[in-house]
Amino acid sequence: MADTVWNTDTGEAVYRSRDPVRNLRLRVHLQRITSSNFLHYQPAAQDGKDLIDLATFRPHATASGHRPDEDEEEELVIGWQEKLFSQFEVDLYQNEAACQSPLDQQYRQDILKLEDSGRRKNRRIFTYTDCDRFTNLEEHCRKMTTAREVPSFLVERMAHVRRRRQDRRGMEGGILKSRIVNWEPSEDFIKSHHVINTPLQTMYIMADLGPCGKLGYKHYEHVLCTLKVDSNGVITVKPDFTGLKGPYRIETEGEKQELWKYTIDNVSSLAQPEEEEREQRVFKDLYGRHKEYLSSLVGTDFEMTDPGALRLFVNGEVVSAKGYEYDNLYVHFFVELPTTNWSSPAAQQLSGITQTCATKSLGMDKVAYFSYPFSFEASFLHEDESAEALPKWPVLYCEVLSLDFWQRYRVEGYGAAVLPATPGSHTLTVSTWRPLELGTVAELRRFFIGGSLELEDLSYVRVPGTFKGERLSRFGLRTETTGSVTFRLHCLQQSRAFMESSALRRRMRSVLDRLGGFSQQSSIHNVLEAFRRARRRMQEARESLPEAGPREPLGDHGLL
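Request: output the structure for the sequence above.
Response:
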C-alpha cells in the first residue's frame, strides 16, 4: 500500500455524447487507508518464518450488525440522478416534522420503505441530485478561500439567474422551443437573460468519512465527484474518471487524520449492434428530413447566366496605405466598367470611401491599416465576334486624401489598376502620384490651408473611357510620386461556357483567354506600334540626307 501512485490531477474533464444521459453508469470504490486497515492486508504467514496470522485479530461485528471492515471499504454502481440517501438524511427525514416540502415528503416515504425492506445498499457513499437543497447551496455559497466569505450583492443577484432548471426542459437533446431572437424584449426579460443561460443539470457523488459508529454528521461529508450535463450533450466530470491512472486521495481533518482513497470509473453499458443500427437509421432519416427542409428554403433553381455572358463577382478589401506625407488618411475608390459589353445591376454600388485612419510607424514608412471591405458584381456579354474586337476589363481607381485637425483635406495621390482577369485571390499594390505645383507658395498653401491641385476626372489617371482620340497627351503636367495602396481581391467568375462542350464553349473560352491577356496584349501592341513609327521616321530622314558614303542598312538588331 505504501507504493500506491496517487492521482493528483483533480481538474475537470469535458465529454460529449449523443446517447441519452440516463444510460450513464459510474462505479465508485471507496477505501480507508489507516494502520488498522494495513493489518488486513499483511500476509498471514511466509515460508520459513514464524509469523502470527493477523487475520485472527479481526474485530467482531458491532451491535448494529455491520462489521468495521465493511465501513472501511465500499463499492457502488450509480446511475445518472440516482438518489442514494446519506445517514444524515435517513435520520432527518424519519422525523415527519422536518419534512417541509413535497420533495421532503417523497424522500420520507422512500426512506421508510428502504428501512422496512432492509434493501439499503449504501452506507458511506451517497448522492445529491439536481433537485436537492445541497445543489443550490453549493452553487450559491461556493467559496474560493478558507476564510469566512460573505456573498456580495452581485453573487446574491446572480444566484437567482439559475442555469440548471429552466422550464424543466428535457436534457436529452430535445429541441428548444423558445424563440431565439426577441425583437421587443421587456425590462424584466433583459434583466433575466443578459447572461449565457444554457440549461444545466448537476449531480454530486458524496462520501461520509466519519469514524465507525459516528456516521451522519455534516462536517464529515466530502464531495467525491461532480457531474454536470447540459442540453447539448456535454458532460463535465470533476475529477476525471480514474481509468488507468492511480486513485484519488482524501485526508480528513481533526484529531484522527485519516487517509482515504477512491476511484471513479465509467461502466456504462455499450450499445448492442441492433441498437446502433436502429440509431443510425433514425439519424439518417432525421438528416434526410433536415436536408429536404433546407432545400425547400433555398430552392432547386440555380441562377444561371445568359448564353455567351460572363458574370464577375469581386469581394475586396482596402488593406492599407503607406508612404504618404501627412497623417489621418482615407481612400476614395471606384470601379469603372468599360462602356461596351459590360453592365452591372441597377442597385449596385461601384464606389466607396474608407474611414479616416491614423498612421503608425513600420520601419521607415508610415502605414495606415483600413481593412475596409467592399463587393460588387458585373456582367460581360460578348457580342462582337470579330478578331479585331479586343474586349476590355474593369479598372479600379483610387484617390488617397488626408484630413487635419481643422477638417481640411489634401490630395495625397491618385492610382489605378486593372482588375485581375483570372479567378482566385489576388493582392494588388497600386502606386500613386499627385499633381505638383512648383513654388514655395504652393507648398505653404498646401500645408496651412490644405488646398492643392486636384483632378476633375479621376479616370484621367489612366486612359479615360470617354476618350475617343488616338493619343492622350499629358505634356506639361507635373506630378510627384507619393505612396501606395494595397488591395486584396477575391474574384469569382460564372459562365455557362465553363460547363458546356459546344462551339459556344470554345468561342467563350477564346474570349476569356483574350480577356486574361488583355493588359499584356495592349502593352505589347503599343510598344510595337511606337517602334515601327520611329523606325519609319528614321528611314525617311536618312533617305533625305545627301549621300556621304556607304551606310549600313537599318535592321531590327534582334529587338523583336
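The mean pLDDT is 77.
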